[in-house]
Amino acid sequence: MKILVIDGPNMNMLGIREVNIYGSENYETLLKLLDEVALEENIDIIHFQSNYEGAIVDEIQKAYQKVDGIVINPAAYTHTSVAILDALKSVSIPTVEVHISKVSEREDFRQINFIKPYAIKSFEGFGIDGYKRAIIYLKNYLKGKK
């Protein structure tokens, strides 16, 4: 089973930016967690991070017929990117959304979420552990479809 994990803008700044919201665990800790989950769950995890919307769209398109599922933290693009939503729709790959913070309880402008209605599940407010939850959920979902 192959899962693509996509992180949007500023995720590479974990542990540096707004520690009161995103926690003190850094980006390298997140990548290490993904490696551990891949090993524990016997999943091939491909990770991609970009601060550029078009690069994320390109990565989603490249995943067509190459991965079984996508876990995405679109970060700020959650609230602005119809292009990322359209890319996800175009490849029809089961997608789980994840957010480190509880975005549904944050600023008004963050209440717009273009990805959530498309995603099969959304995890928010669990810190980086939300990625593990999202991957395991997606793995079980995909196994159930076979």
UniProtKB/TrEMBL annotation:
The keyword Endoplasmic reticulum appears for this protein: no
Residues given in the record as substrate binding sites: N73, H79, D86, I100, S101, R110
Matches recorded under Gene3D superfamilies: Dehydroquinase, class II
Keywords attached to this entry: Amino-acid biosynthesis, Aromatic amino acid biosynthesis, Lyase
EC code: 4.2.1.10
GO molecular function: 3-dehydroquinate dehydratase activity
Sites marked Transition state stabilizer: R17
Superkingdom, natural source: Bacteria
Pathway per the UniProt entry: Metabolic intermediate biosynthesis; chorismate biosynthesis; chorismate from D-erythrose 4-phosphate and phosphoenolpyruvate: step 3/7
InterPro entries, per the entry: DHquinase_II, DHquinase_II_sf
CDD domains per UniProt: DHQase_II (cd00466)
GO BP: amino acid biosynthetic process; aromatic amino acid family biosynthetic process; chorismate biosynthetic process; quinate catabolic process
Catalytic activity: 3-dehydroquinate = 3-dehydroshikimate + H2O
Signal peptide residue numbers: none
Catalytic center residues: Y22, H99
Free-text function comment from the UniProt entry: Catalyzes a trans-dehydration via an enolate intermediate.
Family: Belongs to the type-II 3-dehydroquinase family.
PANTHER family in the record: CATABOLIC 3-DEHYDROQUINASE
Oligomer and partners: Homododecamer.
Name of this protein: 3-dehydroquinate dehydratase
Gene symbol of the encoding locus: aroQ
